[in-house]
Every structure is written in C-alpha cells, then in structure tokens.
Known about the structure:
Strand order of the largest sheet: 3-4-5-2-1-6-7-11-12
Bound molecules: adenosine-5'-diphosphate
Helix content: 25-40%
CATH class of the largest domain: Alpha Beta
CATH architecture of the largest domain: 3-Layer(aba) Sandwich
CATH topology of the largest domain: Rossmann fold
Number of domains: 2
Distance between the termini: 8 Å
Shape: globular
Number of strands: 18
Amino acid sequence: MRILFVISELYPLVKTGGLADVGASLPKALKELDQDVRVLLPAYPSVKSRCPNLKPVAELRLMDRPATLLEAVVPDTDIPLWLVDAPHWFERPGNPYLGPDGSPWPDNAERFGALCWAGFHLALNQVGLNWQPHIVHCNDWQTGLVPALLALETNRPATLFTIHNLAYQGIFPAQTFTRLKLPKALWHVEGLEFHGQLSFIKGGLMYADKISTVSPTYAKEIQTPSFGCGLEGVLKARSQHLAGVLNGIDTDKWNPATDPWIAQTYDLKALSGKQTNKQALAEHLNLPLRAESPLLAFIGRLVAQKGIDLILQALPYLIRYPFQFVFLGSGERDFEQGLLYWARRYPGQVAVHLGYDEALAHLVEAGADLFLMPSRFEPCGLNQMYSQRYGTVPIVHRTGGLADTVVDATPDRLANRAATGVSFEHPSVGALLEAVKRAWLLYSQPSLWHSLQQTGMLRDFSWRRSAAEYCWLYQQALAERKAGPTLSS
Ligand code: ADP
C-alpha cells in the first residue's frame, strides 16, 4: 500500500511530546512490513538544519501564497520525507506551536491550514511527483482538514485520522474559515463548525473514513462526557468507525541492555545493574541515596493532565516515609515552583530537574525503583512502557493507555506472574497514597518484587504489533471509502 503520513512533529527533528515518537516509529514499522510510506511535515528550522541534502521537488501555492516542497529522508531510514517549506509560516525558532511568550502563534490556523492543503494536493497527485497514496494517515488537529478537503473529491485516497490527544482541537474564530480558502460546503454543524467556530479536529472526526486513537480504553472513554472534551456526541455517532491501536515504543532506543545513556547496561537476568544506575542518578542530581529507600520517579509535562498536582498534594504525606523522589519535567509555573519548594525543603529526599533532558530521562528510567504516572487521562502514554522495559515498576491511574499496558498487582495476577505494576481506579490523592503503599509493600518482598520487574521487562511493546493493526485499519478504510473511481494499484 502507498501511505502518506501527515504529522506536525517527528523525533529527532522536532519534538514536543509523544506525537513525535509516533512520527519516528510508526512509518519505520510500516516500512518493515513492506508498505510504501512517505511522510509530510512542516519545514521548521530545526528540521531543515537536521536534514542534509534537502532537494526541492515541487512548487506549491497554498492559500494564495508560495511554498516549496523539499525532499529528504526520515533520519536513519530510507523513508521519503517531504517538507512544506514556507518561511513566512514555519521559519520560527523554538516550539512548533507556541511563541516565546508561551502562547500559541497567532497564525497557527494558517500555518497548519497550509500543511493540510499541501497534504491534500499530494494526496491527489497534483504536485507532479507521480505518486498517489492509497491511504492518507492524518495525526491530530494540525492535520484535521485533510480528510475534510478530500471528502469533496471523487478520485481520492482513503483517510485515517488518529487522535493522539483529544484535548487539543485546533479551534479558531469563524472568520478563519474564509482566510483558509476552505470550500463553503464544509461549513455546517456536521462539518467543520463547532459552536460557531472553526474546528480542525472535527475535519478528521467527521470526514475520515476511519478514526483511531492510541489505546482501546481511550477509544471507549472519549465517547463519554468525562473524556470527550465536548466531542463525545460526534465520536459516539462515529463509533462504528472508531478503533483503538496501542502505540508501541522504540525498543532499540529504550533497551536497558544496550542503552548508551545509562551508567550500566543490564537485563532481566542481571537486574543488579539497576543499583549502579540508581547511584549514578542520585549523584547526578545531588541526592544522598538512602539504603532501603525506594526511589520514586516522575518524567513528563508538568500539567494537570499528568496528575502532577495529585503528586504535589500527596507529598506532605509521602515525605514522612523513607521514600526518595526524582522529578524531571517542565510545564506550568505553579507546578515547577511547587516541586522546587519540596526539593529545597527536603534536599535529602527530593531532587528536581526542570527542563527537557532526553539522556537524563533514560537514566531516570534505569535508576528509579518506581515510576509515578497518575495521569487524569492518558491517550496512550509512553513512560509506563519504558518503565516496564527498564524493570521500574509503574504506579498508574487506570485510564486510557495506562489501563491497557499496566497489569495491576492483585494477588491472583502476582501468583500467575501476569502483574507488571500497581494501578488505581480514581484520580484522587487518597487513591494515589494507597497505591504507593501497596507498591512499597511489594518492594519490601524481594522475590515478589523481582517477579513483578521481570514480567514487565518481558512485555512486547514493539511497534511491529501496532503497525500490523494499522495495516488492517487501512484495509478497512479503503473498503469503506465512499464511492468514487478506484485508484490505480
Ligand atoms: P505526552 O505526549 O502527553 O507528553 P507521552 O508519555 O505520550 O506524553 O510522551 C512523552 C514523551 O516525552 C516521552 O518520550 C517522555 O519520556 C518524554 N518527556 C517528557 N518530558 C520530558 C523531559 N522533561 N525530559 C525528557 N523527556 C521527556
């Protein structure tokens, strides 16, 4: 199958979160299944500087402005990468979505509208590249207009729209609709209009032949008012076309047996290597290690979604016990300040590193005993999978991808060697405290603990499994694509 994969970030070229990891891994895994996959991405400065041998392959007009399509390859692969080079929209340093003051770029609608129009022209083989995809796979709101624009065409590929996080929807004032040169036929409540405004994500949800999200549990949750972010009605109405496919992880990059970023490599037969990493992590963060103390870690964006406020509220209680904590993250100022307060007050128990640090993230996964992930909602989540692979037992709120990837340590599951972590039902401080206590009890029983670690380390979180499921979804999307001439094979 020929697949055009449209996305707004891709590791290691540009990354703000898990979406970039998917951008790097899924096309690679599809390629390994012999699919002809090509990726479309905006040409941000960081992308251009990290891609050698950029070659202009087409000139485009997007919303009456010129743009060039540059060709490169996805790093460490031979997968073609097309970049929408439009300096007036993308030649800006830093975060791809936010300006230096932390608020969204004021012309984000035009910027990602341009990405969508480029995807549309490529999908219809209109730019002279002599390549037409069977499938256009769109990811998150930044690409949501592609399925909508294509829906008005006859000789079009089938479309799959993947929701990586429903909380981000790309909502803009109604007048943006005309500025983006969108066809009038798309402006109605069952189209791009959302309470009188333009919604990019609705383009994907209303018009894609298939919709997916990144875990089966999140696929169910988003059809309810608690998780649907106002779109639960739309999602329920399209539930026949909605599937959940768990993300994988890059098992080469996240492998404790070969990881170049950790102090000592190890595997499940030589778990003692974790102790060396614990020591190295503690030294790196100036945390005086206490014997017998479990080391609890958190890595992630410091936003309410990740339950960092629950952790902050639980700290006054947890600090009375012999736990030590490591936090790596950046985000909202109040949460950053809250963590710094605890690190200043209890320097022997709490270490905080604010910022984004890929290498340190690996050392944290290798050195910690327990990983805290009490996310209020979690479409899939990656760190709980990295943790299991590194023998670091995750403590998670049982939601979305966390529910699908962490097997709670009930007595039965422990006995059957199926358990891989500790999960709790409600996102409350009390439930989090109970879960930590339960994990501590397990930690104090070495043979049970080792079995928990080993079961987690043996789980298959590879992308191969997910890519095969996506291929199946592509087939279904093609079968369900509304009438129109079939594309040449
Ligand atoms: P989300 O995409 O919602 O932020 P995910 O768990 O899906 O959450 O993915 C987050 C990714 O970003 C993971 O690869 C995680 O390790 C990484 N990450 C988040 N914050 C940091 C940080 N401060 N330093 C290093 N890596 C981080």
